[in-house]
Amino acid sequence: MLWLALPVMAEESLSMLVGYTDWWLASHFLEGPEYQAAMGLMSYVFWMLPSLFAAVAIGATALVARSTGGGDRRMARRVTNQALTIGVVMATVTMVGTICFADNFIGWMQLEDRAAGLALRYFLIVLPGIPFIMIEQVAAACLRGAGDTVSGFVAKSIVNVVNMTLSPALLLGLGPLPRLGWEGLAIGTVSGHVIGGLLLGGTLLVGRSGLRLRIAQMKPDFPLIRRILRIGLPGGADVMAVLCCHLVYVSIINGMGTLAAAAHGLGVQIEALAYLPASAFLVAATTMTGQFLGAKQPAQATRSVYTTAVVATLFMSSVALVFYFGGQFLTTFFTGDANDPTGAATTGLLRIVAFSTPPLGILMVLTGALRGAGDTRMPLFITFVGLIGIRIPLACLFGWGAFSVLGFSVEGFAWGLAGAWWAMLIDVVARSLLMTWRFLQGGWKEIAV
C-alpha cells in the first residue's frame, strides 16, 4: 500500500505546490484582494481541467489494473492506447468549449469586476495547455493501474521546477525575461504542465511497466472504448458532479464579496494539505482492489482497503491538528501579514475544516476501492445526495440571511462564509458514513468489468 501511495502522495503534494507558488507570489507581489479572489477561482479551474478527463482515467485505471492482475499485458496495452484516443477527442472538445464559453463561465462565478477580468485573462492563457494536462492525467492513470506510481511523481517534480522558476521570473522580470506581472504567473504554470504532458507521453512511447503507446494502435476500437467508458463514465460523472456542485458552492460564496472569495480561495489552497495526499490513498486503494480482484483474491482486496483506510485516517487526523492549532501560521505564510483580513478570515475556516479531514480520508479511500472494483454508480449517487441534498442547501441556509426559493421566503442564519464551511463539514461526514455502508455491503466484490 505504501509503495503505491507514497509516490502518489509526493506527486499530489507537488501538484499542490504549483498552486501554492502562484498564491504566494500573487499575495506578496500583487496588491489587492482582487488578485487573491481571482487566484482562488483559478484554483478551481486547475481542479476542473484534470477532472474533465476523469471518466477515461478511472475506466483506464480499473481495466489496466484488472488486466495486470490477471497477467494480460496485451489487453493493458490496448486499454492504454484507446484511453489516449478518447482523451484526444475530449481535449479537443474542451478547448473549443473554453474558447466559446470562458467569458460566460467567469460571469457565472459572480466575481466582482476587476477580479473577474484577471481570472479571464489567466484562463485564456492556460487554454493551449489543455491537451498536455489531458496526457498528464490519462497517461499517469494507466501507469498507476499497472502499478507504476513513480513516473507521475517524476513528471510532476519537473512541472514544479519549471513553474517555480519561470513564474517568478516572468512576474518580476528577472534576468533577460520581460516583466509580465499577473500574466507571467499563468504562463509559468501552463509551461510546467506542457512539459509534464510531454514527459509522460514520451514515457509511454518508449514503454514502461508493460505499457507502450503506438500510434497505429490508437485507431478507435469501439467495443473497448465502450468498455472503458462503461466503467469510467459513472466515476467521471461522480468527479464532475463534485466539481459542478463545488462551482455552485463557490458562486454562493463569491456573491458574499471579494474578501469572502479571497478567504475561501486561500482556505481551499491550504485544505489541499489534506485533500491531495488523501488522493494518494484513493489511488492505492483503487489499484490494489482492481489487481486483487483481477487475481481472484477478494479477501486480499478487502484487507488492502482496511489497511489503507486506517493509515489514511491517522494521517488525516494529524493534518487536522495542524489546521486547528496552526491555522494562523499557515495563513500568514501566504499573506505575509498576520493582520491581513484575508488571512484572519481563513484562520477561522481552517478550525472548521479540521473536523472534516478524518472522515474525508475514509471517504476518499472507500471511493477509490469501489472504483477499482468497477462499482462507480453508487458513489455517484452518494455524491449527489451529499452535495446537492446537503452542502448547497445548507450553504445557502447557514451563509445567507433572508432569501427566496421557488417563490418562498426563507430566513437564513446569516453566518456568512463560516456558515458555508459548516455546510461542507456536514456534507463530508454524511458521505463518509454512506460510503462506509456501501463498502460493508460487499457487493462490489462480484462486479464484472
SS field, number of helical segments: 15
Q: From the helix content, strand content and strand pairing, which structural class follows?
A: mainly alpha
Strand content: under 5%
Overall number of domains: 1
**DSSP, total strands:** 2
Radius of gyration (CA) equals 21 Å
What does the average pLDDT come to?
89
- String of helices and strands: HHHHHHHHHHHHHHEEH
* Unreliable stretches covering 5 or more consecutive residues: none
Q: Outline the biggest β-sheet.
A: 2 strands, antiparallel
Task: Give the N-to-C terminal Cα separation.
Answer: 23 Å
Helix content: over 70%
3D shape: globular
Strand arrangement in the largest pleated sheet:
1-2
Structure description:
This protein has helices at residues 2-29, 33-51, 54-69, 73-108, 113-126, 130-145, 150-172, 182-206, 222-254, 258-294, 298-335, 341-353, 357-373, 377-399, 417-441; strands spanning 402-405, 408-411. The chain is globular, with a radius of gyration of 21 Å. The mean pLDDT is 89. Strands 1-2 form a two-stranded antiparallel ribbon. A hairpin with a 2-residue loop joins strand 1 and strand 2 (408-411). It starts with a helix and ends in an 8-residue tail after the last helix. The protein has one domain (2-446). The protein has 449 residues and is mostly helical. Helices cover 81% and strands 2% of the residues. The longest helix is centred in the last third of the chain and has 38 residues, at 298-335.
Concise synopsis of the structure shown:
Helices cover 81% and strands 2% of the residues.
